[in-house]
Amino acid sequence: HSHLVIDGEEIPSRPRSFSESTRKPLHVPVIYDHGTREAVSLVEQKAFLETVSGKLVLGYGYDERYAKLLEQYGAAGWVQIWTSGQTQIHEDTVSPVWGTPDMASSLFWKLFGAYLMIFYTDVFGLPAAMVGTMFLVTRIWDSVFDPIVGVIADRTSSRWGKFRPYLLYLAVRFGLIGGLTFYTPPFGDVGKLVYAYITYSLIMMVYSVINVPYASLLGVMSPNPSERNTLSTYRMMFAYLGSFIALLLFMPMVNWFSGHSKELSDQQFGWFMAVVVIGVMCALLFLGCFAWTRE
Q: Is 47 exposed, middle or buried (0-12, 13-18, 19+ CB in 10 A)?
């Protein structure tokens, strides 16, 4: 009883990794029916799969009895049965890396909250009234855009899942557009205002497109409430760490890149380069989460 049979080949109990077998049809040594809340015998397994395939979501640690059964029969992950009749076994999904995108988002969010108005008025050269109006317009659009992103993300289907692809495709764009937001172009007042509207609107849209799917990722990483709570703890930890880094290191980086000069052109260069460094960090954090998490 304490083994897996994968494509006719016996796999010893407690294998080190299921990574090579996750895409193969397999016979699961213990199946737990959440409808009747009873373990299904191996004799009944084949008929059971044929009748209820696609109707179960089985998670390691749903309750103590289920966890003990999995442990008894050598399973090392949680089992999910899809409508195709195939099953997948996933290893432990609790990883601190899942919280790194919140660190990236917090880095930029703190820049927006603490420094963006200062940048636009004192460095970029826009009147405060124009900046305030721009913030209002973009936030109104953002309140409409976020639900649209949620609907699109929920309908996404790829080999990486529903939500992980957004981390991959938008990580570099997030850092790039963030850097451009803090760049001062050699334009006149009207040109600068148009540039500010475009770049700030884009960064807020990219922020939504990458963070709404990321927030939804928790629901598909584990069916276990205890694991979800642990993942949420990692998320909050990295969010506070990102805020701390942004508030502590940003202005020293600006001063270092500007050569501690008070000249406007040097200050503009210092602000831009400091955000470039943060943008690179953010891109790497998002890509790391994509690489080390699974739905």
A: exposed
What is the model's pTM? 0.68
| Contacts with 41 (C-beta within 8 Å, 6 or more apart), sequence order | none
- What is the rounded distance in angstroms from the CA atom of residue 230 to the CA atom of residue 239? 14
Intervals of the chain under pLDDT 50: 1-7, 9, 11-67, 69-71, 73-92
Contacts of 13-16 with CB under 8 Å at 24 or more apart are: 13/73, 13/74, 14/74, 14/76, 15/76
Q: What phi and psi values does residue 19 have, to the nearest 5 degrees?
A: -60, -30
Is-contact 121 131, C-beta < 8 A? yes
pLDDT at 96: 83
Using the structure block, give the residue that is written with the tokens 């899809």.
82
- In 10 A of CB 113, how many CB atoms? 12
Residue 93's pLDDT is what? Answer: 53
- pLDDT tens by residue, 222-263: 777 778 888 888 889 999 999 999 999 999 999 999 999 999
Q: From 75, 73, 56, select the one nearest 18 (Cα to Cα).
A: 75
Asked if 22 contacts 90 with a C-beta cutoff of 8 angstroms, the reply is yes
Q: Is the dihedral of CA 176, 182, 183, 186 positive or negative?
A: positive
